[in-house]
Amino acid sequence: MKKTNLLMALAATGLYTTSAVADDHEGAKWSGSGQLGFSMTSGNSDTENLTAGLKIRRESNNWVSDLSLDLLRASNNDVDTAERYTLNTKTGYKFDDNDYVYYGTRWDKDNFSGFDYTITTSVGWGHKFHDTDSHRLITEVGLGYKTEALDIDRSENNGAVLSAKLDYMRQLTETTQFEDVLVVEAGDDNTFIQNDLGFAFKVSEKFAVKLAHQYRHNTDAPAGKDSTDTLVSANLVYDF
After folding, report:
1. pLDDT tens digit sequence for 163-190
2. Which of these, 27, 32, 72, 182, is most buried using a 10 Å CB contact count?
3. What is the rounded distance in angstroms from the CA atom of residue 149 to the CA atom of residue 8?
4. Which helix (H) or strand (E) holds 9?
């Protein structure tokens, strides 16, 4: 099963790489960010918590490609309490400055969710209402196919899903930025919702401190598992 998960992740990454290589080079721009948060206690309680993320974006006259990788690890007295890896890739073809079609993949491996892994592939339409350095509002709607592999008996739920995304950002002050990203994957067996909300406080041209709240919900969680997970984190962000 671990080998299967690795192949899925590599396939998703390969789709991103192929699209980038095939993209037209004229006017192509690269951008991205990396973030890291870590906390540790010792004494009466030994805990370690790590959050990390990487985002890369490449945009040219006709194409836009995105890749993101997120990591969560936590332990208490040497016992793991959280371990999650999420990989997202997306390639879009732009009709104009505001509209594009896309193909995307989301692979999620959460060792404490009751799902061995989930993978969703989708195609859809994206529209930019605003996309500037101070204000962003982008929506996406698509159709896809999702596989959820259950830990309890290694069975799989497969089926079509309706996918949607809302990406909002507003520059509140010269040094403060608000961001909220909502993702929904709705299917017959389960509806997955994730909302990432955060405030970033710029401390230099390249660095910022980000306070973030993540909400994840499955309407039909595996037996014995909670439907909702939340994460509050503080991260150092580097833009490049």
Report:
1. 999 999 999 999 999 999 999 999 998 9
2. 72
3. 13
4. helix 2-22
Q: Give the whole-angstrom CA distance, residue 83 versus residue 75.
A: 9
Burial of 161 (0-12, 13-18, 19+ CB in 10 A): buried
Domain boundary assignment for the chain? 2-239
pLDDT in tens, 12-30: 445 454 444 455 555 688 9
Which tokens sit at 2? Answer: 């671990």
Within 10 angstroms of residue 172's Cβ, the number of other Cβ atoms is 11
Smallest Cα–Cα separation from 194: which of 173, 166, 169, 174? 166
pLDDT of residue 25: 56
2-239 sits in which CATH class?
mainly beta
CA–CA dist 153, 140 (Å, integer) = 34
Residue 11 has φ and ψ, to the nearest 5°, of -65, -45
CB–CB of 203/209 below 8 Å?
yes
pTM: 0.86
186: Cβ contacts below 8 Å, ≥ 6 apart: 161, 162, 163, 164, 192
Mean pLDDT to the nearest integer, 203-217: 95
